[in-house]
Specification:
Cytochrome Bc1 Complex, Chain D, domain 2, single chain, 5 helices, mainly alpha, two-stranded antiparallel ribbon, 48% helix, elongated, 142 residues
């Protein structure tokens, strides 16, 4: 009788794992980059800037948060709090030094030994959206 109960428990655990797998696989949702409406932000033109031109104001912060949560949170964590899978972007240095660390991988992506660790967003997301995200990230507590 004990052997039957043991086998039933094993089967139940395996069934639960199989049923939970699709939820785990789909937990990050659609991984296609999403366009960000930057209406109201100062247009930055076609020449990519090396430093963040935006100051923290209600519009920039709102757009930055939306851009981040729709495009970056699946890997870097909800509201900027990394779960350890990807770098915590709140920890970037402030000012121009951090801007350089931020914008290049955001534009071009991160590839090491032929493996893509992060896609590049240039051509998929405007520089206005990227800099609004940087502005928002700098306001978050560490």
């Amino acid at each position: 009788m004990l052997e039957v109960e043991r086998k039933s428990l094993i089967v139940a655990v395996l069934m639960a794992a199989v049923l939970a797998l699709p939820a785990t696989v789909l937990a990050h949702g659609d991984v296609q980059p999403q366009q960000v409406d930057t209406t109201g932000l100062k247009p930055l033109g076609d020449q990519w800037l090396e430093t963040n031109p935006y100051e923290a104001n209600d519009l920039t912060l709102r757009i930055g948060k939306i851009a981040y949560n729709t495009n970056c949170a699946r890997c870097h964590g909800i509201d900027g709090m990394s779960g350890g899978f990807s770098p915590d972007l709140r920890e970037l240095p402030p000012g121009p030094q951090g801007d350089g660390f931020y914008i290049e991988p955001t534009r071009k992506g991160v590839v090491r030994n032929g493996k893509t660790y992060m896609p590049g967003f240039e051509g998929l997301m405007s520089q206005e959206a990227m800099w609004a995200m940087r502005t928002w990230l700098q306001t978050l507590p560490k």
